[in-house]
Amino acid sequence: MGDYVGKRKANYEGTLKGRLDDLHTMFADPEIKGIVATGGYGASQLLDRIDYNLIRSNPKIFIGYSDVTALHLAIHKMTKLVTFHGAPTVESEYTQRHVKRAIFKTEPKGI
Question: Among 21, 34, 100, 103, which lies 20 to 30 A Cα-Cα from 89?
Answer without folding.
Answer: 21
